Fold ABC transporter permease.
Amino acid sequence: MLKATLRSFLAHKGRLLLSALAVLLSVAFVTGSLIFSDTVSRTFDRLFASTAADVTVSPKEDLDEAVHSGRTATLPAALAERVRQVDGVAAARADVKVNGLTVVDEENRPVGPTTGAPTLGYAWNPNERSPVELTSGHAPRGPAQALLDSETADRRNVRIGDPLTVIAPPGSFTVRVVGIVTFRTTNPGSALLYFDTPTAQTKLLGRPGTATAISVDAAAGVSDDQLKQRVAAALGAHTYDFRTVGEQAESDVEQLGGFLDVIKYVMLGFAGIAVLVGVFLIVNTFSMLIAQRTRELGLLRALGADRRQVRGSVLTEALLLGLAGSTLGLAAGIGLAAGLIGLMGLLGMNIDADEMEIGWVTPVAAYVVGLGVTFVAAYLPARRAAGVSPMAALSDAEVAGVGRPLRVRAVAGGIVGAAGAAALAGCAVSRQTSSAASLLGLGVVLTLIATVIAGPLLVRPVIRVLGAAFPALFGSIGRMSQRNALRNPRRTGATAAALMVGIALVGGMSVASESMTKSFDRQIDKTLGADFVIQNANFQPFPQEVTDKVRRTDGVGLVVRGRFTPVAVRLPDGDRVETTAAGYDPRLDEVANITYAQGDTASALGRGRLAMDRDFARDHGVRMGSTLPVEFAGGRSAELTVGALTDQDSAEGFGTQGGLFFGLGTLERYAPGGQDSALYVNAAAGTGDDVLRANLERTLEPYPQVQVRDLADYKRLVHDQIAVLLYLVYALLGLAIIIAVLGVVNTLALSVVERTREIGLLRAIGLARRQLRRMIRLESVVIAVFGAVLGLVLGLVWGVCMQQVLALQGMTALAIPWVTIVLVVAGSAVVGVVAALLPALRASRMNVLAAIAHE
């Protein structure tokens, strides 16, 4: 049996090649994502561990202050002198590090990275742990000198002696490059500027005599933990945060983890699609091979092979296929990881491909996925093969029948489909976002399974409709192509299912994204009342000088400032919610349209008061007039009274969770020194919008990070952000289509082999080669369009349910992207034509007499 199995596998290796490609793609994405994430994680582990001090003392911050407010948490630089006196300290230095600088050259062109990585400013304090070393020029001396990293200098063509303008939180200042530093470790993609310590303190922090951390080196024989305990005892354990080198490196890696997780999960998403679609392809391939080998299997049974041996033979073939696909997929995954590492290099993150990390988990995952996929996919065909009776050797009967199994499918599909429909219905009527999302996920999975199970039942009614025009358009050729697609509903259903998965995904996400876009457009129209909004490109705060210059711009009438700050609110139900609150100037009503359930803008922005979303307040037992303890960054706290409850949808809220906002007076009292994150600007009387926009853009020309947006710009911004999600979905669709095309090619190729004698007879009675190719192409097209129709129906149902979940978050508009639907159907027809090219060509080249004599 082993010899027979190996001979059978080698005899059909050409037919199994396309199935092996599906396994290869699945394994490649899994292993590529694991290798890439492991390599990047290990690289940054080494970077952070090699550059962190033995012990780092930093300000105690429970809330993320710098991200929202523009303030950088500091501590007294004089602490370094106190730390030096601690027993076991070899050295201590006050560090300054500020994130989010903007740097431009003398032609006002940005010098920093454009890939989202930050531009960082440091105090120049070289030591053996510094990530850079001075390779040309000299150290900075005085407020007009700075060092720049070599990679940024090369990328932006900056040389020693060139002037740069630095836009920092306290304001702008000009420096001249006096030296170039080179990375001794991996460059994470950031641009680095170094200043002398007094300049960094005054120009970057705005507070002389301060630092962002104290770095402490241990003396010989003193462990990091011992040093941490001694320094904490000297300074007060509850006054600052104290981290050893390992703890600091772990904290830095956690901050990077979000970026790495995004890449990993995206690639695993591709792997999941490849696995799912590949299962359909492998099931179909083995089902057809077994159907074509009915006589062979029957003879094996007649010669004494039992059911277990036949089943084992088929599964052995599948495992050989999985072994080959897994091995090739592992190699392809290494290449994919190398490509991603190279791509990161183009984006400025220099990772050495020679240090690629391939842990033991990666090959294990490769073979578990590859062998698991093929084993699961081949199990049902193997069971059917074991059921071939010895009498089948005397006939050409196929294993697959059309009677009872379809009835079983109908019952199973109906039960699963009913459960899925119930879950989707529950999602549509649920009022809680978490439960609605859970029901949506369950409903999507169950309805997808139900459609796959019951797909063959839909083949005949749907394809009769889809192919109804074929006889009129293509005559007898069209009629035969339609009947070929109807001949074996299981095969047609399984072939179309691979395409259906991808199209259902893109259909559902297209409805959701179109609905989100329409909802945001509606909310922006409803809420935004300002002529223009001035904001940083990445929504971060900007220096006070920007606000001052905007106010002095010709044609500006009203300017309402908006600031954000992290807060923690203690609620009556006992919850402590950390969120972001906003502060606004008193004339907010003139630039925004806010709907209040109770109270008004005056009571919301009054001294010691705050506004809150009505639904959030109801869920936590808050009422008008309730007094709530609010914690601000820096350890400050206040008792604020609820002065207004808003009836804003979440899509148009003024904060994040809870929709909290208050007056700028309240914000300045408890969180002073913050920076504006948005300016809402109305034109003065007699000034047109075009004139004011031109004046504002001229004013803000020295600040390339700050943008002027009107209503249309805001909508375009939202559209672009949603489009990023759609591009990912389209990429997933593209992968699904690639594997689906392999499946259609495989099905048609095996079908041509199965119908060799029939094709020979058709050619003998006058069917031309061109007509034969058209017949196979039309069969492929109708199968592909059938899969597209099923996918679109399923995707539209999913999309409508997704919109119901989004409606709970304020995005209440439902929009169907009809253009996308038409393009998908047309594209599926093209997919069918492309998939049929090789099988049709092969069929048309058959020798007529040899085909007629084929057994």
